[in-house]
Design brief:
About 75% of the residues lie in helices and about 0% in strands. With about 375 residues, it is mostly helical.
Length: about 375
């Protein structure tokens, strides 16, 4: 079956895009809400930080819970709980700061495992031959959600500062209605001692790949203004950096989906190394555009290859927790990359991503060939 006529996949895709939408809306929505109620944007930043910390803390434990009860049933409950948390936050917009901070923890804890749960259901939605293409198309759609979330907040804010947060609750309810249903009872969950040490070691290169994606991307996404100012360009040219990065990411994912193979992730890591070194070296506008295009073009394929290979290693009854851990590791990379931009010289910050990519590539060099073999797509 072709992916583009795969009704179950597009139902899954619609559900996961609705589930992702609140996270992309949250930074601006929280800022606008607290600015309207307190006169300061700072509380919005605090709420976002607490929300992200709660996501990271809850990702793996809640993912394990999803594995126990079954991802389909568990996701529906988690999404409705998350929706209730956002609705409570909207209703308590005028509450004291400690109350708002406490309320934002609730949707944060439950939201941390949503991506891992949906990724687990994808394995039951499409077969292995369609999986690389499915992940690549999803990466392209994710770019649209990342751009569309803040834009939607800006439009909804015209109706009132509470409306965007309420819309985040509605998006969670819509995602709950679209969760794919799968038959079967969840298998027994393996404990840590059930998982062979060799398998635990086999996860590390792929977790390092996920960390590298977050680390190097954040170097660009957080620093478009200083990157163009380093070239003596006005701040109004900063959006060009993000546009090139997003466009290259979409194009890279499209080419990867068209090719339809898992591919060798070491090639994409090599692209990260080359792009990061060029970015650090400051070769003017040509170097900046070329480095960002290379990094963006390798991002989607590296994410897809990492995801496919993780699925091959993870036991079926540990996938929600495993994928949630992967997304959390990527988020940690993004946070550390952002910190590096804030405290280090601009030329030095990309080198941490280069180093991480080189380490991940080195770990994959010594992996068995079967772990990074290709899977062809016949659709």
């Amino acid at each position: 079956m072709s992916l583009f006529t795969h009704r179950a996949y597009w139902r899954w895709s619609a559900g996961v895009q609705f589930a992702r939408l609140p996270a992309t809306m949250a930074p601006l929505a929280f800022t606008l809400l607290t600015t309207a109620t307190t006169g300061s944007y700072r509380l919005g930043g605090v709420l976002m930080s607490v929300f992200v910390a709660a996501e990271m803390a809850g990702a793996v434990p809640v993912g394990r819970l999803l594995d126990r009860v079954g991802p389909a049933r568990g996701l529906t409950a988690l999404l409705l709980f998350t929706a209730a948390g956002f609705a409570a936050l909207a209703l308590a917009a005028d509450a004291p700061t400690p109350v708002l901070v406490g309320l934002v923890v609730l949707p944060g804890i439950s939201a941390g495992a949503l991506s891992g749960g949906f990724r687990t259901l994808l394995a039951d939605t499409v077969d292995d031959e369609l999986l690389p293409r499915a992940i690549s198309v999803d990466a392209m759609l994710l770019e649209g959600v990342l751009i569309g979330g803040p834009a939607l907040v800006a439009v909804l804010d015209l109706a009132g500062p509470v409306v965007p947060v309420a819309a985040m609750a509605v998006a969670c309810v819509a995602a709950a209605a679209l969760v794919p249903r799968r038959a079967g009872v969840p298998d027994r969950v393996e404990s840590a001692v059930d998982v062979p040490p060799a398998r635990l070691l086999a996860y590390l290169p792929w977790l390092c790949c996920a960390f590298t994606v977050g680390l190097l991307l954040s170097t660009i996404e957080v620093a478009p203004l200083p990157l163009v100012q380093r070239l003596g360009a006005p701040g109004t040219t900063a959006p060009v950096v993000i546009a090139v990065l997003s466009g290259a990411s979409i194009l890279g994912s499209a080419l990867y989906a068209w090719r339809g193979k898992t591919g060798d992730p070491r090639l994409f890591l090599a692209g990260f190394v080359a792009g990061g070194l060029t970015l650090a070296a400051d070769f003017g506008w040509p170097g900046l555009i070329a480095s960002i295009a290379v990094i963006g073009g390798c991002t989607g394929p590296l994410v897809a290859a990492t995801s496919v290979n993780l699925q091959r290693l993870l036991p079926k009854n540990r996938r929600s927790a495993g994928f949630s851990l992967s997304f959390t590791v990527q988020a940690c990379g993004f946070g550390l990359g952002s910190l590096a931009v804030g405290v280090l010289p601009l030329w030095l910050a990309p080198l941490f991503g280069v180093f991480a990519a080189a380490i991940a590539g080195g770990m994959l060099v010594v992996k068995p060939a079967r772990a990074i073999g290709t899977v062809s797509v016949t659709s």
